[in-house]
Structures are given as C-alpha cells and as structure tokens.
Amino acid sequence: MALRDSPRHSAARYLLGGAVAIVVVAGAIRMFGSPTLSDLTRVSQRDASADKPAAADDRADTETSTATDTVELSSTQLASFKVAPVGYRVFPVRDQAIGAIDFDEDMSAQVFAPYQGRIVSLFAKVGDDVQKGQVLFTIDSPDLIQAESNLITTAGLLQLTTKALARTKALYEAKGAAQKDLEQAVSDQQTADGNFKAAQDAVRIFGKMSEEIDKIVASRKIDPILVIPSPISGRVTARSAAPGLFVQPGSAPAPFTVADISTMWMLANVPEDSIPRYHVGQTVAVSVDAYPNRVFDGKISTIGSIVDPSTRRVMLRSEITDPEHLLRSGMFANFVINTGEAQHALAVPTDAVTREGDGTMTAWVTTDRKHFTRRQVTLGLQQHGYDEVLSGLQPGELIAADGALFLDSAAKGVVD
C-alpha cells in the first residue's frame, strides 16, 4: 500500500532543500569570493550594451567612410566628363613682367619754329598722319623779313656792279679806262656776287625754295610767311600751336610733336636678379588689355644700367612692331620672353587638378572610365591651360581631364 506524505513530511523536505542550497552558496563564496558593486555594475552595463543598437560609434564610422579616395560615376554623370590620357607637352621657360607702351623717342620729333614769330596758320591736328616735308604751320617771322630784305639789296648791288664791270671792260678795250679801273670793277662785281649768294643761302635756311627766291628777287617783294614742315613721316601726337601765338626756337612746349608709330616702345621694370637672363636682341611677345587676343612681336633694345634703390628693379626697353597703329602711348602691357630652352614634360589640363586643404594637388585616375581614384601629384610650370606634372602620374594613364572639383565634392559626400 502506498504511503501518502503527511504535512510533517513535506515541511521536513523543504527545510532539507534550503539547507542544501545554503551549503552550496557558501562553498561558492569560499571558492570565488563575494561579488562587489563594481562587478555587478559592469555586468549590468554589458548586458545593457548587448541589447542596445549601434548609435554614436556607428555614426562616427559612417561619417568617416563618406570621405573616400574612390568615386564611381553613373552613366549619366560620365556623359558630362572628359577622360584623356596623360601626355607630353612643350613648356617654354619664360619670364613675365608688366610694362607700359610709349612712343619710340628715336622716331619722335618735337617741331619748333627755327626763328621767333607769330603763328599765322595751322595745317594739321592731333591724330593726323603727315609725311616728311608736309607743312604743319606757318609764322610771320621778322628774321625772315630781314633776310629777304638783304637778299633784295644784294641782288640790286650785283646787278649794278655787273653793269659797271661791263662798261669798264668796254672802255678798257677802247683804251678809255685804266687797268686799275677794270680791276676795281671786277672786284666790286665779285664782292656783290658773293653777298648775293650768301643772302640766297640765308633765305634758303628759312625753307624757301629756289623758285621762291627767284620770285622775291624778280618782284622785289618780301614774303614774311615762314613755312614749318614736318621733319619726319608719322602721326601728330601733340599740338600746342594756335593762331597768333608767339613762338620761339626751343621754347617748350613744342608747337607740334610728330612720331613714327609703326614702332613703339614697351618700358618694363624687372627684378635685378633676373637681369642675367636677358640680353639685347631677345624676342618678346607683348599683349595689352585693349586687344586680349592679339600678340605684338618685339625685341629687347636696351637694358638699363641703373638699379632703382627703392624697388631693386632695372628698366628694360623693347621695340614693338605695330604696323597697324593699334598701340597707344600709356597702355599697360604684359610681356613674355623666353629665357631658357623649352622643356618637354608630362602635362595635364588645369581643370584636371584640385588643391586640397593641406595644400597638396590631386588628380583623378581611372582604368575603366567609371571608377576614379584620387592621386596626389606634384606640379611645375603652368602655361596655356596646362600644368606640368613632375611626379604622381605616368604617361598614358587615364585621368578625368575636367570635373575634378565635382569628383572631389562627390568623394566628400557633398553631392550625390
């Protein structure tokens, strides 16, 4: 017959189980030691972190990963990009400087009246092109009046002594005059002839031609108008003359200034340490803002002998050919001059390179025309839209020839 547990038996089993549990816990404490508060805290934190999803750390990793050195472009984006191989270009070794255009003083003349007088008429104005010998202005000159009066007087004396000599010769041949009378007549005629020729030369100095001199002698009438011609062919660049103005030789300002503008000067100041690279006869290429797409050719004609003590620069003068008369005195000009042998070097378009925040230069290289990788490069000369590559790229490598800024922004996650 089966025995049923009585309440007494149940209580005994409960007390026995509790005693066994106490004994087991006590043994564990003796073996491992009792847990501290920090242990319990670490356990709770570990359990909490195990259940919590990635937050701040994952976001930091995500932000770091947005800046990458490789960018993949879609087919739509690729359509707007130009991919080209790295190749060679010729980079001339050049110096550049800023200067100013001026008239060629060797081909410029200030036109003064050779004698004092008042201006009567003007025959040219600023901007007119004139030829050598063309009349610029006329003056009423008292010196010319005196010279012409002397011319008329000497012409009369010459005529008188010539007739007297003829009569004396006739008398001498007829035994009606002495030898000394003939000799005196010859002397008087020769003196008068010499004075007349001197008077002609004096009038000729004033610009009178032989035909005009003969007319004055024949008419016995003085022409007081002194003609002032242009000494050279060129353009009238300045005029201070006015009708009625009294002018004197060498008294500034000159009534007229004429310059041959087919050749102009460019004056530039260059650093003294660059002087060894220049020499007379070197060719220069000059450009001005007024004609940005035009290059004017010239040659260095003078290298200054003095260094400016305040700027430490030396004057450099070049003669610029301007057959179309486009340049104007006072224009600012840029000049480029080859100072060394041209360099044959690797080159990339300027738009293919970007400057990073630390100052380094980078280009984007591709092998499949779809994925682009950032590559640091070292640059040298920059000319006509191309940069010389000193290191970082090899001949034939494919690069993004333009759009480098877009790729840089895409790599930083700025654009989609």
Give a count of the beta strands, DSSP E runs of length 2 or more.
21
In terms of quaternary structure, the protein is single chain
- Strand order, largest beta sheet: 3-12-15-14-13-16
Q: Which percent bin holds the helix content? A: 25-40%
SSE string, helices as H and strands as E: HHHEHEEEEEEHHHEEEEEEEEEEEEEEH
For this structure, what is the CATH class of the largest domain? Answer: Mainly Beta
- What is the architecture of the largest domain at the second tier of CATH? Beta Barrel
Our count of domains comes out at 4
Main sheet properties: 6 strands, antiparallel, barrel
Average pLDDT over all residues? 80
User: How widely separated are the two ends?
Assistant: 87 Å
CATH topology (level 3) name of the largest domain:
conserved putative lor/sdh protein from methanococcus maripaludis s2 fold
Describe the structure concisely:
This protein has 416 residues and is α+β, with helices and mostly antiparallel strands. It folds into four domains: 70-92 and 343-411, conserved putative lor/sdh protein from methanococcus maripaludis s2 fold; 109-140 and 224-259, Beta Barrel (OB fold (Dihydrolipoamide Acetyltransferase, E2P)); 142-223, Helix Hairpins; 260-341, Elongation Factor Tu (Ef-tu), domain 3. The chain contains eight helices and 21 strands.
Key features of this structure:
416 residues, alpha+beta, conserved putative lor/sdh protein from methanococcus maripaludis s2 fold, OB fold (Dihydrolipoamide Acetyltransferase, E2P), Helix Hairpins, six-stranded antiparallel beta barrel, four-stranded antiparallel β-sheet, 21 strands, 36% strand, rod-shaped, disordered N terminus
